[in-house]
Amino acid sequence: MIGAFLTFIERDAIAHPDRITPLSSSQISHGVELTRDVVVSDDDEIPDDITL
């Protein structure tokens, strides 16, 4: 499922590079605020019952 989505994004980006825009500083700040207390590790495993 994720592979198909990434393929779609890749094809769309190649076909329409004009649609790619950088994030604004306020969008980045908002993302930082949303994830402030999120702790992750490369060793973390995603449980089998999680749907992405």
What does it look like?
- By secondary structure, the protein is mainly alpha-helical.
- 46% of the residues lie in helices and 0% in strands.
- The protein is built from 2 helices and no strands.
- It is flat and about 35 Å long.
- It starts with a helix and ends in an 18-residue tail after the last helix.
Radius of gyration (CA) equals: 16 Å
Mean pLDDT: 93
Bin the strand percentage: under 5%
The main β sheet shows up as: none
The number of helical elements comes to 2
Distance linking N and C termini: 8 Å
Number of strands: 0
Helix share bin = 40-55%
Q: What is the succession of H and E elements?
A: HH
Characterize the overall form: flat
Unreliable spans: none
Decide which structural class fits the backbone. mainly alpha
